[in-house]
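Final paragraph of the annual report: two paired records, presented back to back.
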Amino acid sequence: MLSLETRLKELMLASLAGDARSYGTLLNEVARHLRFYFLRRLSDAHKGDADDLVQETLMALHTRRATYEIDRPFTAWLHAIARYKLIDHFRRNRIRATVPLDDVEDLFATDLSDAASDRMDVERLLEAAPERTRDLIRRTRIEGQSIAEVAESTGLTETTVKVSIHRGIKAIATKLKGRAANDDK
């Protein structure tokens, strides 16, 4: 299964080339992804605003799609738009977001120049796990879906999802240990 980045980027490139079906699929997948994105960032009192933020972001994506640079990651471009829509929402509604001190490092800008390289490393490491397990790890650890959401969408039990993820991560750790042992020689 393709990673979220790869799948969305392929859909975006096809839609920029004029494929209306790909554009419709892109908007549906992006809407689902954005809903999770906004729900994670809104307080309980403002979770009802998530759908409005998704719509605003989709409209911005539509009007600004020509500005997407095809050699750049699609999700970074999408998240930049979503982040600005969220900030605008906070300003418009005079919402002051508070962050626990444990999460303060998320507030500061970080150098993401190695993000593409890191993503490729993660994909290589994920190859140590079976395909279904790779998908479960991506969806929970990378895309941020909950165990319950993944279990419901795949038809698996929550226990099966947890066990599969645990075994997959264990296989990846074993691969890393083997690679480290070879590097020491």
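The closing record of the year follows.
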Amino acid sequence: MLYQIASLLLDVVAGLFGGACLLRWYMQLQRVPFGNPVGRMVFALSDWLVLPLRRVVPSIGRWDVSSLLGAWLIELLQFLLLWALLGGQASLVSLPVLAAFGLLKLALTGMTGLVIVFAILSWVQSPNPMFHVLQRLCDPLLTPFRRFIPLVGGVDLAPLALLVALHIGNLVLGYVQASVLMGF
């Protein structure tokens, strides 16, 4: 039971800080301005790690590699701490692979959260400053679905289809992760 509690707490902390690093990377990739509440929160949660990494790891075009590396390092630290709590029973070599899968899972889970909040805000039509930020983050993923899914009674079902696709991606990722880890 103590391991489950520690695992949950580590998952929350790694999700918060790793998710902020991933969101920073994605916002920069989509050229979303950071002068909004979401951007300020992302900077506050990720500057401590990303800025020192930026001195060592340069960006590649529009790809902020230091933000991606920061998110991966947070996931790696999470799995290293869990490994230590288990008494080092698993192979230490598997930890970087677990961190990579954890990063992908974090990205899929984070995008799921963004799409859910965006869909809810789109129904309400309130003058919320976060709506435009979320729209710029979600639209690149929703556009392919909108090409094939027409509006139904004025309701956009593309977010629902994207959520199903993200869930399927999470299922496939879990299966691939289990298959890869069986080799260790």
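The mean pLDDT is 93. This concludes the annual technical report; the extension proposal builds directly on these records.
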